[in-house]
Each structure stands twice: as C-alpha cells, then as structure tokens.
C-alpha cells in the first residue's frame, strides 16, 4: 500500500473506530501496534479531545454521528479507503484529502509548532468561541487527530503525525457546475508583506509555479447590502480579536463566488451543500446572495495555526530580522509580523488596499457607495 493510501487508511480507522464494535484481543492489538511501528507510512492515530468536537458537531452544527462517519466509509465494493488525496495546496508541506462525497477536507499539521499550538493553546478557546458565536467564520473543525506513539515513518518524517478534519467550503461545486454555475475561489491575505519568492531579485530566483502559490489577489468587488457588509465586518473583528489574543498570524480568508447566467444562484445550506430547502438561515459559510441577484458568496477563515510565541516562528522572525539588518530592509513577512499588526492589515475596514477594495457596500442594488479606507 502506497503512502497516500496508507495515511488515508490510518485517518479512516481513527474516525470510524468509535462506530465499530471493538472485538480485537489484547494480543491482536499489540501485534497491530508492533506492525505500525515498523511501517513507513501507516500510523496509529487517535482523536484528541473527542468530547469537545463531538459537542460542536452534534449540538452546534447539527451534524449527526452516523452522517459524519458515513462520509469516511468507502463506497460499496470499493476496497480503497474512503478518502481521496487532493495534492499540493500551498507552502505548508501539508497533505490534503477529501472524503469521497466531498463534504470534508482532511489537512495534516506536520509542524510541531502548529499542532502543539492548536492542542495546548488554542483548542479550548476555539471550541468556546464556536459555541458562543455561531456565525464565526473560523473554519469548522470536526475532529483533531494525533499519533500517541512513535513509528519509523514519524521518526523519518515520512508521515505527518497530526491531522484536522474540517468543512469543505467548496462542497456542492460539481453539482453547481452541472447546473451552469461558475465557481471561483480566492485565498486572501495581506499581500503587502515581504515575500522572498516575489521580492528578492524581483522574483527572478523563484519559478512562476512557486510564486503562483502565494496569496491570491481579488481584483473585483463584493456587492452587499449595508447590513450584510456591517455583519461581515463585525464577524471578522470578533474572530481576529481571538486570533490576535492567542498570537496567531498568517491566517487567510477563503472567499468563494458562485455566478450563474441562467438563473438566480441557489443559496447553499446543510453544512455547505446546495440542497434547496432546509429552513436554515443563509450564512457566510453556506451562501450569502448579493442584492443584485448575480452572485452567492461564501467565506471562512483558514490556517490560524502559526503562532508567534512558538519556537519555529521565533526562529523565522530572527532570520528575517537579520536579513533586514544585514542585507536589505524589506520589512516583516506575514509569518514574522506581530499579531496585532497582521490583524490590522487583514481587516478590510482598516486595509482596503490589501483587499483590493473588495467589499462594495450598498443599501440597495441601485444605490451603492464604495467603502473607503480609514
């Protein structure tokens, strides 16, 4: 079994183990752990703080256990794990999988600084925040998996030791495209920071493929009512206040725009699906329709695992400061700046240039005004 299939199988076992009757003997369990230790790619994973995430799934996000677990089971007659590798999605070195039904994304957290920050510093605050503020744009995390034991694969850094299961904000894309909808997405973060791939030697030392993986730029406007725009800004203020409190930087806003030329876009509900009627009020993660009827927007905040007080971020900050002192004063990177400064550049009401004046607030489709920077 190859690397991707082995990691996928390990994740599926961790998610579905609680739904199966445990019939293994003690000897069988010991032999299985022994086998895992000498495996390069298979890894023993277990849920971290399972009760907290179960409370979020069941009580806050109305996701039944059976419905959740069924997404990880392979289709009938399929011998492969119920996960599909997605491929390269950025600089982090993470592996990404999607469930076969595309409802959930599984992302690895390979850096110790990231998974230790989420486990030791952020987890309880995240859970409480999601309970207190149902409209939060912080991505829904349904489970947090970690390896409690060593293996050859972990020692040789061939497999990631921690994974998160999160919502797929693009759920429903294939069905929407079949109806003639156009789906576009942008991974937005402040682009005015120092990016070595772009800013050293005018980018000549990095390939176009490398530079294409930097933050996206949104060269357009989001048409919203004044109430929608005010609500969005209030949510972002509250969410980023939490992230700044726990010293997180380099997070991004993942924006999705759904457009159709033959009918008004349908507002998605039911954990991001495009089902027509469920009685659930539209939200930024399920779909907010623009007042002109041309678009539906979705948005979540991603990648809030890089915290300035951890060892690796401190080392990166030292190296960038040394570069600025000895070579060229390019300023901080998004991963080396202060949490408050990053938040100020991230928030659209204080940094419209960074967002390319993305939000166009209007009280009606016919009467609108351009929001201006402070």
Please provide a written account of the structure:
This protein has 374 residues and is an alpha+beta fold. It folds into two domains: 3-167, Phosphatidylinositol Phosphate Kinase II Beta, CATH 3.30.800; 180-362, no CATH class. The chain contains twelve helices and 14 strands. The strands form four sheets. A six-stranded antiparallel sheet has the order 1-5-6-4-3-2. Strands 7-10-12-11 form a four-stranded antiparallel sheet. A two-stranded parallel ribbon has the order 8-14. A hairpin with a 4-residue loop joins β3 (96-99) and β4 (104-108). α10 (226-245) runs antiparallel to α12 (339-346). The longest helix is centred in the first third of the chain and has 21 residues, at 112-132. The protein is globular. The relative contact order is 0.13. Residues 19-23, 267-279, 350-358 and 361-374 have low confidence and may be disordered.
């Amino acid at each position: 079994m190859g690397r991707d299939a082995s990691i996928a199988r390990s994740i599926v076992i961790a998610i579905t183990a609680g739904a199966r009757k445990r019939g293994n003997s003690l000897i069988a369990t010991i032999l299985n752990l022994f086998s895992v230790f000498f495996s390069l790619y298979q890894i023993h994973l277990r849920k971290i703080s399972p009760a907290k995430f179960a409370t979020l799934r069941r009580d806050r996000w109305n996701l039944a256990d059976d419905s959740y677990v069924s997404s990880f089971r392979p289709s009938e007659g399929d011998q492969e794990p119920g996960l599909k590798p997605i491929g390269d999605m950025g600089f982090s070195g993470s592996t990404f999988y999607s469930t076969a039904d595309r409802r959930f994304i599984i992302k690895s957290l390979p850096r110790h600084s990231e998974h230790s920050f989420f486990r030791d510093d952020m987890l309880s605050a995240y859970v409480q925040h999601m309970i207190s503020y149902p409209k939060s744009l912080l991505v829904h995390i349904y489970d947090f998996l970690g390896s409690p034991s060593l293996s050859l694969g972990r020692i040789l850094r061939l497999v990631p030791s921690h994974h998160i299961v999160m919502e797929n904000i693009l759920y429903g894309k294939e069905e929407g495209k079949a109806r003639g909808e156009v789906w576009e997405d942008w991974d937005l973060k402040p682009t005015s920071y120092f990016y070595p791939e772009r800013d050293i030697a005018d980018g000549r030392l990095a390939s176009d493929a490398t530079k294409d993986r930097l933050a996206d730029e949104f060269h357009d406007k989001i048409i919203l009512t004044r109430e929608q725009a005010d609500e969005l800004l209030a949510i972002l203020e509250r969410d980023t206040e939490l992230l700044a409190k726990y010293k997180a930087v380099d997070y991004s806003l993942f924006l999705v725009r759904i457009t159709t030329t033959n009918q008004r876009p349908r507002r998605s509900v039911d954990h991001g699906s495009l089902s027509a009627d469920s009685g659930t009020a539209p939200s930024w993660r399920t779909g907010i329709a623009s007042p002109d009827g041309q678009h539906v927007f979705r948005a979540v905040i991603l990648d809030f695992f890089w915290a300035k007080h951890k060892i690796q971020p401190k080392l990166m900050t030292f190296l960038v400061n040394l570069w600025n002192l000895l070579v060229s004063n390019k300023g901080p990177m998004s991963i080396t700046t202060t949490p408050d400064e990053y938040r100020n550049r991230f928030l659209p009401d204080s940094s419209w240039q960074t967002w390319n004046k993305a939000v166009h607030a209007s009280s009606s489709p016919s009467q609108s005004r351009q929001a201006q920077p402070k």
